[in-house]
Design goal:
Layout: E1 5-6, E2 10-17, E3 20-26, E4 37-38, E5 41-43, H1 51-63, E6 67-80, E7 83-94, E8 107-113, H2 127-139, E9 159-160, H3 163-169, E10 180-182, E11 192-193, H4 195-198, H5 200-206, E12 212-221, H6 228-241, E13 246-256, H7 262-279, E14 282-290, E15 298-308, E16 322-326, H8 331-344, E17 346-349, H9 363-373, H10 379-389, E18 393-396, H11 401-413, E19 416-419, H12 428-437, E20 450-454, E21 466-467, E22 470-479, E23 484-487, E24 492-493, H13 501-511, E25 513-516
Parallel strand pairs: 1-7, 2-7, 13-14, 19-23
Antiparallel strand pairs: 2-3, 2-5, 3-4, 3-8, 6-7, 9-14, 10-11, 12-15, 13-15, 16-20, 16-22, 17-25, 18-20, 19-22, 21-22, 23-24
Helix pairs in contact: 6-7, 6-10, 8-9, 8-13, 9-12
């Protein structure tokens, strides 16, 4: 299962004066949100400090303004990959006049802004929702003026999606599956299927008449991404496939922040529809609404699938078996890093153990990396392998990378794995980012990779060692004597996974000096 590192709570203070709110700009070398704007905030010391005392101290240190913390006006949990922060936002009142800002070394600039200024500043994570909520409370505004340049259609009100928009959404439902008796729609909130018809697809795929098991998986998409609908389908389908099950359908709860436009809702539904068509899945309905508690889109999804008992990937493992790796190290993380670099449109200046000459990012590597990052689905090749070889166990990689996935795999099965990590397939673009940023790619988020256990020699049966364009490599064996994951190259054991290496990669990108092209 994906893991998450729980960080200390953070307290933030909103100073409202003469119709404007004070924001400050983080320094270029900040580890997180470099060069982005925020309200003063700081980490709450665990079990030691009242959050109000935290923000009073931080406000004075960061701005030179002595304040008294008032009521709590906003709370939210910010989450991206293995990084989690609960943000507590308080209204603060100045204790001295006139108000004079004296910035600390942690910030480089300050500004007093009104609601009309929000689109003029690149805000740190969580700040958009915080500031919008504050302006609504302080000025009695229902909404903040939206950016009409990038949004089309009406701005949606809080609450349920309008019927006219919902009617369009329910038509985007992926593929039509066997056994459908009734599909959710206006006035009907449930999906109904004939189970014995629904399982036929799985039985036909495996040429099996055995009874089928129902497999259920739920996983949300909570971090900002340009294609959340696709991620919601693929991440859940990958997990269902590791049991050998054929993904059948998915239900989704779509939650949108205030100021969401109609076209943004349709774009998400189209992503769900197109990806479902690609993988042979049906969108079975769900729920959608606009909520003022959010500052970005959240998709909560649940998927079902079916697998005949004789092809269920949950068989006894022996020391004669081998462990295989399907896919490239750091597939998803490579794509995310490429997108981050491309969005910045920068030339990176060397700051540490790189040449003194200013290097430019290789555009061909960026293109290659982005393409690799799109190849995160492992459903079809894994199911093909299971149909032919009746795999014994399988586990896909996500946060924590391939090392994290192998450690989880060994713990779940309570077995020992002897692994030669020099055999891991690495795409040139991933190797390029490893050198550029100095990161451990074996700990980089790796959706698009799956490990499985089966009889020896499976990889040798494939042409060029690939299936559906993904490399398949035999990387080790089962160890009856050792527990855990033993790396034969370093003669060491893997330790439990920590925060994903992507966090370090993004921090290093932010810390690099930049200059416009």
């Amino acid at each position: 299962m994906p893991f998450e590192v729980e960080m200390a709570k953070s307290a933030a203070g909103v100073l409202y004066h003469e119709g404007k709110i004070l924001i400050i700009k983080r320094r270029p070398t900040a580890k997180i949100d470099a060069n982005k704007w925020e309200v003063p905030k700081g980490k709450v010391r665990l079990h030691e400090e009242d959050p109000k005392k935290t923000i009073e101290r931080e406000f004075l240190e960061e701005t030179g303004i002595k304040v008294k913390a008032g009521p709590l006006i906003h709370t939210e949990k910010l989450s991206i990959l293995g990084f989690s922060i609960t943000l507590l936002v308080y209204k603060v009142e100045p204790l001295t006049y006139p108000i004079k800002v004296q910035l600390s070394h942690e910030h480089t600039d300050f500004a007093w802004i009104g609601p009309e200024d929000l689109d003029k500043y690149t805000l740190a994570m969580g700040m958009r929702g915080t500031l919008e909520k504050a302006f609504r409370l302080f000025q009695g505004q229902k909404t903040v003026k939206p950016d009409t340049k990038t949004r089309k259609g009406s701005i949606l009100s809080l609450g349920k999606i309008p019927i006219s928009l919902l009617e369009k959404m329910v038509q985007l439902r992926g593929v039509r599956q066997l056994g459908v008796l009734e599909y959710p729609g206006i006035g009907r909130d449930c999906f109904v299927a004939d189970y014995f018809q629904a399982i036929k697809k799985a039985q036909e795929f495996y040429h099996s008449n055995d009874n089928c098991h129902l497999v259920v998986k739920a996983d949300p998409i909570t971090f900002p991404t340009p294609n959340p609908g696709r991620y919601a389908i693929v991440v859940n389908a990958n997990d269902v496939a590791t049991t050998g099950a054929i993904p059948y359908g998915i239900t989704t709860t779509l939650l949108f922040p205030p100021n969401t436009a109609e076209n943004e809702v349709i774009q998400i539904q189209e992503q769900l529809h197109k990806t479902s068509e690609e993988l042979g899945i049906m969108v079975l309905g769900g729920h959608s609404e606009v909520s003022e508690s959010l500052n970005h889109i959240v998709i909560s999804a649940s998927m079902i699938g079916f697998v005949p008992n004789d092809y269920y990937i949950n068989k006894k493992v022996t020391e004669k078996d081998s462990i295989y790796m399907l896919g490239y190290v750091g597939t998803e993380g490579t794509g995310i890093i490429a997108s981050e670099l491309e969005q910045k449109e920068i030339t990176l200046t060397a700051t540490q153990n790189t040449a003194s000459q200013t290097p430019k990012i290789d555009s061909k590597m960026l293109t290659r990396a982005k393409k690799l990052g799109e190849q995160i689905a492992i459903v079809q090749p894994l199911l093909q392998l299971n149909r032919e070889f009746k795999l014994k166990q399988a586990h896909d990689a996500t946060e924590g990378g391939v090392f994290g996935a192998l450690w989880e795999f060994s713990q779940r099965l309570n077995i020992g794995l002897e692994i030669d990590d020099t055999l891991f397939p690495v795409d040139p673009s991933t190797a390029y980012f490893k050198e550029l940023l100095g990161i451990d790619i074996n700990k980089l988020i790796s959706s698009g990779v799956v490990f499985f256990i089966g009889e020896p020699g499976i990889a040798d049966t494939l042409t060029k060692g690939q299936i559906d364009g993904k490399p398949l490599v035999e990387i080790g064996k089962i160890s009856p004597e050792r527990k855990g994951v033993y790396l034969t190259t370093t003669h060491s054991y893997l330790t439990p996974p920590q925060a994903d290496e992507l966090i370090i990669a993004l921090e290093k990108i932010a810390a690099l000096q930049v200059e416009n092209k």
